[in-house]
Design goal:
By secondary structure, the chain is α+β, with helices and mostly antiparallel strands. It contains three helices and four strands; from the N terminus they run αβαβββα. Strands 2-1-3-4 form a four-stranded mixed β-sheet, covered by helices on one side. Strand 3 and strand 4 form a beta hairpin. It binds FE2/S2 (inorganic) cluster. The site of FE2/S2 (inorganic) cluster has 10 residues, from loops.
Length: 119
């Protein structure tokens, strides 16, 4: 059994994910009167659920992680920020996109699939 803080235990260890890549969908929300842009919990959650269903339909559940995130630092009032992160790859292969209301979910999925599993 582990007790105390992580620093006291000194047992930080590296782990390897089983997935090939991850998608982080911003669901950050601010106060309605905020003048800052934000993606929005509802829109982000809706997009995330769609991506999870799409992933499952293609049998990629164990290969692509679809997670929600807080603010990713590139806020937009007119879309949801999505970070596409291949596992263990060089930083230049990481992508961030803002998915707007008129954008095609299938095109986003094709981009994710191509970046993370290359198929
Ligand atoms: S609120 Fe979504 S990226 Fe900042």
């Amino acid at each position: 059994m582990i007790s105390g803080t992580l620093e006291e235990c000194g047992e930080m260890r590296e782990v390897k994910p089983t997935w090939q890549g991850a998608v982080f969908v911003c669901t950050h929300e601010r106060e309605p009167e905020s003048c800052k842009a934000w993606c929005g919990r509802e829109r982000g959650t809706d997009l995330r659920e769609w991506l999870k269903a799409r992933r499952k339909a293609e049998g990629l559940k164990g290969r692509i992680l679809v997670a929600k995130s807080s603010c990713l630092g590139v806020c937009s009032k007119h879309g949801v920020t999505v970070a596409i992160m291949p596992s263990g790859s060089e930083p230049s292969k990481r992508q961030m996109v803002v998915f707007g209301p008129g954008d095609d979910r299938e095109r986003l999925w094709a981009r994710i699939r191509n970046a993370l599993v290359g198929e």
